[in-house]
């Protein structure tokens, strides 16, 4: 049976208001975001859907404080990130945000366990690397090197690394973009399980419209704006996604 939709009445973890982002390269300006307002709530799984170039990655980078908006505000709980120092933003990312990217960025000379331990060693109250890997179904692959793992398994190590610090936000940019449908579903299952068990507010960027059905809420981005939002009353399980 499909899990129940999360309530939007849960507390907002992150609130972005009227965010714009202009990239300037020489005399050329690209307005990547034109006034985007979004909220991410505790326990929620949100899918950001939009065509190539619509501004999804730009938005995710700003939500995760990897980049700053040209105008507008971003607030994490009671903290204003817009005017925070670089040091405060680094601390925010380190303590509260897990990132998952399309290419897994694992250290090839380290095992799965060691890749996760890189993060747990600098976190305040992390889970053990073994627990993080168990949560993504890789408890039996602790001592394998990335080259000994499939693409989907490597991405699950990247997810374990992202969640081991128990972040309040998990931001994923095309996490299944390099994967076939079977391994892509396994990655979505890992993200779904973490979201449901740990209550981590999770945002997933994708072009894959099939994936939108696992979300509690879908935010459609078009030409640097939120074109519309939809709430899924009955999200489906990742195993039911048709690619
Ligand atoms: N560093 C940059 N410098 C200049 N322009 C940029 C930069 N990054 C992105 N852009 C431009 O901003 C716009 C939005 O890009 P963004 O990567 O956010 O889109 P996207 O929706 O994530 O696309 P994709 O699905 O292809 O990854 C595009 O027109 C892109 O060319």
Report on the architecture of this protein.
The protein is of the alpha/beta class. 27% of the residues lie in helices and 28% in strands. The protein has helices at residues 56-63, 86-96, 112-120, 129-135, 151-163, 181-198; strands spanning 12-25, 28-41, 45-49, 71-76, 79-80, 97-100, 169-173, 201-206, 217-222, 225-231. A 6-stranded mixed beta sheet has the order 6-7-8-3-9-10, with helices on both faces. The protein has a 4-stranded antiparallel beta sheet with strand order 2-1-4-5, covered by helices on one side. Strand 1 and strand 2 form a beta hairpin. Helix 3 (112-120) packs across helix 4 (129-135). The longest helix is centred in the last third of the chain and has 18 residues, at 181-198. Residues 1-5 have low confidence and may be disordered. Bound molecules: adenosine-5'-triphosphate (ATP). Adenosine-5'-triphosphate is lined by residues 23, 25, 30, 32, 50, 52-58, 207. Adenosine-5'-triphosphate binds at residues 23, 25, 30, 32, 50, 52-58, 207.
Quick overview of this protein structure:
The chain is of the alpha/beta class and 243 residues long. The protein has 6 helices and 10 strands. It has helices at residues 56-63, 86-96, 112-120, 129-135, 151-163, 181-198, and strands at 12-25, 28-41, 45-49, 71-76, 79-80, 97-100, 169-173, 201-206, 217-222, 225-231.
């Amino acid at each position: 049976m499909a899990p129940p939709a999360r309530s939007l009445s849960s507390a907002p973890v992150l609130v972005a208001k009227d965010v714009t982002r202009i990239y300037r390269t020489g005399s050329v300006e690209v307005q990547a975001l034109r006034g985007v307002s979004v909220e991410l709530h505790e326990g929620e799984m949100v899918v950001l859907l939009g065509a190539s170039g619509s501004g999804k990655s730009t938005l995710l980078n700003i939500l995760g404080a990897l980049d700053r908006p040209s105008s507008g505000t971003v607030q994490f709980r009671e903290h204003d990130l817009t005017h925070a120092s670089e040091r405060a933003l680094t601390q925010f990312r380190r303590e509260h945000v897990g990132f998952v990217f399309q290419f897994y960025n694992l250290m090839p000379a380290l095992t799965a366990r060691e890749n996760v331990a890189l993060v747990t060693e600098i976190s305040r109250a992390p889970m053990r690397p073994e627990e993080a890997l168990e949560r993504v179904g890789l408890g039996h692959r602790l001592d394998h090197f990335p080259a000994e793992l499939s693409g989907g398994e490597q991405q699950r190590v990247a997810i374990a690394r992202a969640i081991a610090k128990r972040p309040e936000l998990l931001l994923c940019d095309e996490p299944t973009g390099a994967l076939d449908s079977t391994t892509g579903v396994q990655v979505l299952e890992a993200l779904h399980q973490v979201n449901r068990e740990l209550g981590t507010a999770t945002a997933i960027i994708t072009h894959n419209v099939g994936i939108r059905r696992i979300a509690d809420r879908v935010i459609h981005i078009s030409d640097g704006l939120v074109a519309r939002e939809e709430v899924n009353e009955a999200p489906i399980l990742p195993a039911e996604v048709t690619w």
